Amino acid sequence: MTIEDIPGDGRTLMSREIDEIPAAVSRLVRGEASHLDDVAAAVRRAHPRLAVVAARGTSDHAAVYARYLIESELRLPTAMAAPSLTTVYHRSSDWAGVLLLSLSQSGASPDILAVTEAARAGGATTVAITNDPTSPLARMAEHSIACHAGPERAVAATKTYVAELAAVAALVARLSPDPSLGVALSRLPEVLEETLSAAGRWLPLAEPLVDAAVSADRMLVVSRGYNFPTALEVALKFKETSGIFAEGYSSADLMHGPVALAQPRVPLLAFRPDGPMGAAIDGVIEHVTAAGSRVWLVGGRELDVPRPGINGALSLAVDLPETLTPLAFVIPGFVLVECIARRRGMNPDAPAGLSKVTLTM
Amino acid sequence: MTIEDIPGDGRTLMSREIDEIPAAVSRLVRGEASHLDDVAAAVRRAHPRLAVVAARGTSDHAAVYARYLIESELRLPTAMAAPSLTTVYHRSSDWAGVLLLSLSQSGASPDILAVTEAARAGGATTVAITNDPTSPLARMAEHSIACHAGPERAVAATKTYVAELAAVAALVARLSPDPSLGVALSRLPEVLEETLSAAGRWLPLAEPLVDAAVSADRMLVVSRGYNFPTALEVALKFKETSGIFAEGYSSADLMHGPVALAQPRVPLLAFRPDGPMGAAIDGVIEHVTAAGSRVWLVGGRELDVPRPGINGALSLAVDLPETLTPLAFVIPGFVLVECIARRRGMNPDAPAGLSKVTLTM
Questions:
Q1: Which among B94, B97, B260 has the least Cβ separation from residue A243?
Q2: First vs last Cα of chain B: how many Å apart?
Q3: Which of A47, A85, A257, B287 stands the most exposed, by the fewest C-beta atoms within 10 Å?
Q4: Residues A118, A95: contact at Cβ < 8 Å?
Q5: Do B243 and A261 touch (CB under 8 A)?
Q6: Mean pLDDT, chain B, as a whole number?
Q7: Which chain A residues are Cβ-neighbours of B60 within 8 angstroms?
């Protein structure tokens, strides 16, 4: 499908579904509250010694977010599952005392199901996060959290990604000794509405970035820490919808080799939270601008101050702790991706060679 | 530096150091044996409940190998460290009962040092694997394993990578209830000599792949399971030495979105072990050849049988369990990368913008 195939008023499903993000998060935070209390109580009773997160694709980026948030808020060591150990090598891990969090928009991928089945049989506390509460994964896990994102019709997942992040944050907030995450979560739908408006106002100003990406075959997308998954997710969306080789990196990992790719024809988009992490990312930005890369930033209020060498910045006045900024920062990323795909003459709702549900074993 | 700057007989340091891989592994396996026995005994006494692996860049790919090998051979859940939790967010994890494996060729990166220091202070059993036994990391960790790779002068690490894999395998073999890994390890130096010869004989036959990569700005490098780090590492080497956007993927993750990048102008190199994992990778290869990708394979004896739709294959008659094939399969990958960098007129020994030791916090 090309851009000419978009029906009706010419707005893509992807664009409409980005607009639905605040409402989806509101339904999750408010509508799932009492069930989340129950799941959190069950997890607390299980006293897990270790968390393991299992997912693929976009959901795997929500899993990376879970990996950072669980370890930092709960001091619980957290690992990413390697499904092939279960599905191909048939090597049983020691699942006793594990909290397994399985994330899947469709709840259907056989490898994530197999890991969940093995973990449950091995004594893990299993929690599924899925947008389909009737899916095989929701039934397989002992506990299931529904994303309440509503049907997602664009192949490129947007609102289900942010809803998965919200579900992770809402569960962790209930288990954390620090009440501030829960307090901030209650404000989240309003903050995301503001972010969506700001992203819309920013897009015309980001025209040089759009131009650069439309003519580029390659891009670098960078962040670190809680927003490392934001970089991975926005890079994946560029690949899926625009055929751009956009590689997502932690700014620290970028310095250990891939920085050799930084050059004038490769635009770099960085997600930069305020505070110490922003300062850490700045060092890398200075390095790549010196190498001739054109750099655009999305971040917090600290970006109000003009920065030499930076081609453009979106300063979001998000009143959120850094732990929740991934839910906001990804929105201008999605808005940008959708616009660039259309400008490249591609229909982001139906990328070539992809289908909505991917089944891997 | 460009290719004209290569001194002497025109052979690059990278090429010479690839040739030294079997000798480096032999020194590790034979020379470090009794010290490895002692480290293994100390780990066994600690009864770890969890392993955590900390590294950056090329060493991080050795860490991914460790993650698979430890979990499959020892049934010990294994996580990759997220250094920013320690160095930027100052969130202390629960290190009690953890086996921390820190990998660094130089033993100098401040973030890996900080994680090792925090883990040791928090009660973890800390083991460093480094090529410099006098490095800060070797002194920081309770136990230190030397890679015995000798000085590595090319910026692109090759022999130290394989030596790190060998160190991981040699430690895990001593802790595994299954003696077969240890038995196979003792044969490893001879097998790697044969692999090196086979890779040299293969290179002229791989001329169409060399041509394709010389004119490509983008590549996909794919494998899964124990050889997932092989794909990551060969992709990183293409980035570092040739400026090619080569992205390394698990074949399962490739299907969840990035497969949209498969197209005639994007060569795909896959590392395909024999057995069930090879069969799992075949399904993905069929998908990308149908999308028009040109595909080359490096793998085991099963590649002796001609495959329709495949542009070329190197069948290595490696008499190794799949767990040790990553040490062999990466060698033709390195040989190919070195050749392609030179053909692109670049000096793989001194890539632009990179230095041998990268210090990140």
A1: B260
A2: 28
A3: A47
A4: yes
A5: yes
A6: 93
A7: 253, 256
pLDDT of residue A1: 40
The nearest CA of chain B is from the CA of A258 a distance in Å of 6
Alpha carbon separation from B273 to A322, A328, B228 (Å, rounded): 43, 42, 11
Residue A61: its H or E element: helix A57-74
A91 touches chain B (CB under 8 A): yes
Of A94, A104, A27, A92, nearest to A63 by C-alpha is A104
Measured between beta carbons, which residues in chain A are less than 8 angstroms from residue B255?
Answer: 358, 360
| This prediction's pTM | 0.95
Are residues A75 and B84, on separate chains, in Cβ contact within 8 Å? no
Residue A83's nearest CA partner among A104, A105, A69, A106 is A104
Q: Which two tokens stand for residue B116?
A: 């090792």
Contact B276 A88 (CB under 8 A): yes
Q: Find the angle CA(A338)-CA(A341)-CA(A346) to the nearest 5 degrees.
A: 125
| Model confidence band, residue A2 (pLDDT cutoffs 50, 70, 90) | very low
3-state helix, strand, coil in chain B (%, to 5): 55, 15, 30
Q: Supply B19's token pair.
A: 């040739």
The verdict on a CB contact (< 8 Å) between A85 and B68 is yes
Q: How far is A241 from chain B (nearest CA, A)?
A: 8
Strands (E), A212-343: 218-223, 245-250, 268-272, 295-299, 312-315
Q: Do A56 and B262 touch (CB under 8 A)?
A: no
**Residue listed under structure tokens 């599905």:** A87
d(CA A99, CA A121): 13
DSSP-derived letter for residue B129 is: E
User: Would you put residue B107 in left (φ > 0), alpha (ψ -120 to 50) or beta?
Assistant: left
Dist. CA B323–CA B66, nearest whole Å: 10
Give the closest residue to A231 by CA, choosing from A68, A31, A95, A348: A68
Chain B residue with CA closest to A218: the answer is: B245
> How is residue B218 annotated by DSSP?
E
The one-letter amino acid code at B161 reads Y
Interchain contact B292–A (C-beta under 8 A): no
* A118-144 pLDDT, tens digit each: 999 999 999 999 999 999 999 999 999
